[in-house]
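Sample intake — Mpv17-like protein
Collected from: Culex quinquefasciatus
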Amino acid sequence: MIVKLVVNRMALMERQPSIVEECKQKFVPTFARSCLFWLPAQTVNFLLVPPKFRVVYVGSCAFAWVNILCWVKRQKLTGKTSNSSSPVSSSGSGGSTAAIAVSKSAGTP
């Protein structure tokens, strides 16, 4: 719920036209990251951290989590591709440049 609010509010403040699309694409991965981050963090908190240091520990974890949320928010939206067998990756990373370079060099003698 909070993840959805963060993504929607940030997109609204940035005046992005694709608020719903961004939420659809980022909610599930962000929720999974949340579970992978907070479940072990709270397990360590209650098993290993003395009670007098728990507030500091959870505050540090919350600071790290907010930075993770900022990183997720800054990730580019992936475009929907009509052809899933295309050699160009849809993530927009360096793999697409390599695929274009290979396709150009294959056509030269």
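Post-analysis note: The mean pLDDT is 74.
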